[in-house]
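[09:14] KT: can someone run the structure on this one? pasting the chain below
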Amino acid sequence: MSYTCELSSIDPQPVIMIRSRAKAEDLPEIFEESFARLIAYLEETGEGISGPPFAIYHDMLSDQTDVAMCLPVSKMVPDSTDITCREVAISNAATTVHTGPYEEIESAYVALAEWMNENGYEPTGESYEFYLNDPGTTSPEDLQTVLFMPLK
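[09:31] RB: done, structure tokens below
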């Protein structure tokens, strides 16, 4: 698959999140449970979702991935036991769009890494994945994920 890579940013946005550490094979279940808990919390607070769900990968290189599952909201809400609210922003990032199954997203990361290397950019180590459609109603071939890799 061919990827178009470019520089982009994300304006400051309040989000609620659940941060977890899990093995790669456990991530689909962790994502499903976490997003369900985040949605239930928003229902309790009366707030709505103001954009696509996303994940922040803090460490993908170890056997226990450090990941935060996030939902954007229109305003800050109180933290709860395992749910925190904070503002997320990225001033400078390499970005591309992956279309296809989540299991094949590694090719997008490789394309971004090559593009950054060719253009003299260095990533911070975090990466963001924004999920533009629902895997429950979208065929795997049509899933769209926007990747952001913040730059130093």
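[09:33] KT: thanks! Helices lie at 27-45, 106-118.
[09:34] RB: yep, looked fine to me
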